[in-house]
Amino acid sequence: MNALLNTTGSNIATPIKEWSKLEVRAVVRFLFSKGTKPSEIHKQIAETYGEGAMSRSRVYQWCTWFGESRTSLGDEPKSGRPKTSTNEENTTRVDELIRCDRRMKIREIALKLEIPKSTVHEIVHDTLGYRKVSARWVPKMLSEDHKLQRDEISQRLLQRCQQDNGDEDTTHIGVGPGGYFQANNNLFDNLITGDETWVHLNTPETKRDSMTWKHPSSPVTKKFKVQRSAAKVMATVFWDAKGVILLDILPQGQCINAARYCSTLDRLKEAIRRKRPGLLRRGVVLQHDNAIPHSANCTQQWLQRYGWEILPHPAHSPDLATSDFHLFGPLKRHLGGMAFETEDDLISELRNWFDNLDVDFFRVGINSLLSR
After folding, report:
1. First CA to last CA distance, the chain
2. What stretches in the chain show pLDDT beneath 70?
3. Residue ranges of the Mos1 transposase HTH domain (predicted)?
4. In what helix (H) or strand (E) does residue 4 lie, and over which residues does it extend?
């Protein structure tokens, strides 16, 4: 009995998961030629290929066609005007117009060439492979002098790294475990970087961070526009390859100036004495941008008095300011969607976020200066 049951079970048909329309139509034609009724043909098709292979009405339609001596299994050519506009001549003309005016619209091209908009759309996107994009926003257009200064400063910093490594080339400056360029030298051991940023009590979540996975049948998600709160504080952060050395928060309504920045440097000096023993004796290398409080006379006098070296920074180059390209972006994304009732709650969240960062995060940021 068990052997009979096993034999019977092994004869159960397994549905075919991968099939084509022509294959199913060929089966319908075969069964119809054998005299099978359309209702039975649909039943067998559903059992073998699944319910979605061919509907009942479609089976009857194909049986009618085969009964009228049809032999083709493919789709009949659709009626309508043949496509004659998408040819090599029109493709060349469209390409020439776009190259002359990159902002020309599909409608304008169609009117100028007197061809349908649908044809122009097909030529532009499918044949020529164009896609319309917005220009990339940059904070400042660099002049030739700015570019030359940027190149000279970058070359000087690379030479400084080579000298500290005792090498005459950069072949020994390799890639570290995190994918960043790594060089063990006095420059990076003594380097401290810092900058200021505004932090709002209510920071809206960015459109990128609010993206979710959506199935075709899922409802459309909505995101309401939220403005950043007017209440904000200025945070000054100084850090090195080991972590944050000083986090200084100004009260609401205050911003940094030269006198305040010198006071912050005094607190930074004491924080270095506590957290980085021996660094003041070896010599601090400070990296900050060219903001007015950083380049003011009193700030320069303070730095000269204590013998701190200033790492040269090209003008209008936030991509070379470590805090701008490595620290503040993740901080703002972390605060996105958060709303704080008081300034103390915001400061507490900032300190917790900085304290929970892994030391590799800071090491990657400092060492990434080489690759930039």
Report:
1. 77
2. 1-13, 77-86, 139, 162-186, 372
3. 23-62
4. helix 2-10
